Amino acid sequence: MSNKKDRNEVIKQLSDKVGDFTVSLHYDRRLYKQDIKGSIVHASMLCNQKIITLPDRDSILTGLLEIESEIETGIFTWRPELEDIHMNIESRLHEKIGSVAGKLHTARSRNDQVSLDMRMYVKDSINIIIEQLTAFQRVLLNLASQYDDVIIPGYTHLQKAQPVLFAHHLLAYFEMITRDKTRFKEACQRTDVLPLGSGALAGLPYDLDRSYVARELGFSQISENSMDAVSDRDFVIDYLSAASICMMHISRLSEELILWTTEEFSLIKLPAEYTTGSSIMPQKRNPDFAEISRGKTGRVYGNLISMLTILKGLPMTYNRDLQEDKEGFFDSHDTLTSVLEVFVGMLPGIYVNSEKARQSAEGGMVLATDLADYLVIKGVPFREAHGIISELSDFASINHKTFSEISLKEYRGFSMLFDEDVYEVTVESSISSRNTVGGTSFKMVQQAIKTGYRKLEG
Fold first, then answer.
1. For the segment 336-356, what is each residue's pLDDT rounded down to a tens digit?
2. Which of 118, 164, 240, 433 is the most buried (most CB within 10 A)?
3. 284 and 174, same structural domain?
4. Residue 153: which H helix or E strand, with range?
5. Catalytic residue among 15, 211, 220, 278
6. How many domains does the chain have?
């Protein structure tokens, strides 16, 4: 007898110690709208199929709508001991309408119910992200239009390479965000599959109308394997993957904004409200919003790796490990939406120092490739021209001269094909000559901006 008492005491102490270890309510309560909407349609389908009566359906629907109102007005009492959003709503429904509430769970398991809620939430999230990405692209286009004639140095290996238009540089990010939108849309297509009707794992012994449920809940497809439906979280991985790549693009832009605001570059100034001061150095205006955005990229990557790790060893079908799909997803959604909100607010207020940009573009050896092309046009094979200009660049560097400061006599010391027209090779001529599709010429950039606006309108 004493041993049994001891065991019970150990079990109680363990229960007290782990506390809310299995509780997900503090984060999955965000699913309340999806959970209630799914339950309303499920109850309506059960009634249509004569599985429950019309009065029972009406009682369930009325109770669910009242619960939704209670949650939204803040008077709903959340009970952690019920663990999750689903049991909290079901318990409250039972308090409201009695035993009829138990009929709502007919032909449904928490396994396919939670999958349904997550798919609905992910679809809603993707729509929000796509709207924000479109707003982000519009800001990029507006900024490109505002500074469409500003020339800056383009870089490879973070070394000055060739002159480009500032607008052309911004449009590179427009293309990245276009791909991000495509990835999110593809993720939405794979999320857009109704799992409800799969039961716990094996399907259900009722005459269900899954097509009705799919139509009412806005799903274009219905799951074809009940075991896969309740255990699949690929759609969460798709979202997290798209979010990670999108954050990587934003992080790259953040890095460039940070570099461009330094005294060494001095190409741009960020709006004052998107910078912060130093606690000790009064002259500082730090690009903290861009830095934090760059830093937050790591947490989104971490959520993706976490989800992949959760799934990699799971046997079929549902396992409680899948409860861990939500916190990382919600965190990534919140992170990405907040970062996009910052960038849509910050970019319009950027000031570009056109004069400094021009000076920087004219400095160094950014016209070296153009001078090689100059010789090619005069009949020199490109590899030979490349060697000549390489030697010319070394000469200019040693003598602390720009190409425009080299005399014609000095030019001809490297090739007799150089003539007075070599001084017509300028950053403007370099820009104008890049007139192929996708190039940085004034004409092509103007065309790209117009095409970008048409894409957004379309």
1. 999 999 999 999 999 999 999
2. 240
3. yes
4. strand 151-156
5. 278
6. 3
